[in-house]
Amino acid sequence: MKSSLVILALAAVVGAAFLAASRPSTAPASSAAAPTRPPNVFFGHIKSMRPVGSRFEIRFDPAWFLTGHAAEQAAFEDTGSRDVPNDSYVVEEGHRLLSFFVLANARVAVLTGVTRPTRISSAELNQLVNGKNPHHRRGLQPADGYWLRIGDKYPNPAVTIYQQYHP
Predict the structure, then answer these.
(1) By the 8 A CB rule, do 96 and 67 touch?
(2) pTM of the full predicted structure?
(3) Where are the domains of the chain?
(4) What is the three-state SS of 49-110?
(5) Could you tell me if 59 and 97 are in contact, meaning their C-beta atoms sit under 8 angstroms apart?
(6) Which pLDDT does position 39 carry in this prediction?
C-alpha cells in the first residue's frame, strides 16, 4: 500500500507540475494589484472526441477528485466506511456531459506507465479516445480521469489535458 501512495503522490506532483508549466505567469505587477481569478481546471472523464475544423471538441463528464478528509467523508457517506485507499476518492455526481473545444496545439500528456507521463498531440488523443493506438503505446488506460485547464479567452478551449493516475 505504501508503494501505491508513493506512486499516487508522484503522479499528482507530475500532474501539478505539468499544469503549472503550461500556465502563463499571472503574478501581479505590484502587491496592490487586484487578485486574478483562479484558472478553470476540471477533473473528469473524456467520453468522446471529434475533429471540428482546425481543433477538436470533447464531451467531458466532470467528477470530484477528493483527498484527505473530504475523501474520507464522501467515502463514508457512499459506502459506510472511511477507508480511502491511496488517499483519493472520485465522486461521480452525475453524468451530464460538457462540451469543450481543444486546441490542436494543446499540451496533452497521457500515462504510458504508472508514473510515466508522455506528451502527445491533440490529434493522437483523439485517436486514443476513439479506440485507436497509432503509436502502439503500452500501459495506456484511456478510461482514467483527466485534468483539463480551460483557457481564459473565448471560446475558452482546453489548453492542457493531463491524465491522472488512479489505482
Answers:
(1) no
(2) 0.74
(3) 2-24+37-163
(4) EEEECCEEEEEEEEEEEECHHHHHHHHHHHHCCCCCHHHCEEECCCCCCEEEEEEEEEEEEE
(5) yes
(6) 67
